[in-house]
Amino acid sequence: MESEVNKLLRDILTSIDAIDSYILGKRSFEIYKSNRIIRSAIEREIEIIGEATRNILKIHPNIQITAKRKIVDLRNIVAHAYDTLDDAAMWAIVINQLPVLKSEVESLLKQE
To answer: Which of 49, 43, 47, 57 has its CA nearest to residue 5?
Structure first.
């Protein structure tokens, strides 16, 4: 795998780890929903994850990331349609989908 792809995969992993640190000890939807700083920080990391994924797809369109298109689409929503974001949907992605993405990215980096 190209070194640029590995750098982008590490960027994704760094953003996922950052999100984990933002919600550490606060794995509560109510805290997420009521804390604008946490929401904004997570949304920024989602943008980074989506942009890195978009750039990976330009280089390696068949990379084994399950929801790669949805990740890019979510980045576009966060960046351009922020007023349509649904807190419950974002929280569900953070809690349910990011662990899957993290596992896939770690696996891809091990193939290095």
So the answer is: 57
Q: State the average pLDDT over residues 81-92.
A: 93
Spell 78-96 as b/e; 16+ CB within 10 A means b: beeeeeeeeeeebbebbee
**Sign of the C-alpha dihedral, residues 55, 105, 67, 29?**
negative
Cα–Cα distance for residue pair 46/48, rounded to 1 Å? 5
- 10 Å Cβ neighbour count for 71? 24
Q: Which of 107, 13, 17, 19 is nearest to 63 (CA)?
A: 107
Mean pLDDT value across residues 64-77: 96
What are the tens digits of pLDDT across the range 47-57? 999 999 999 99
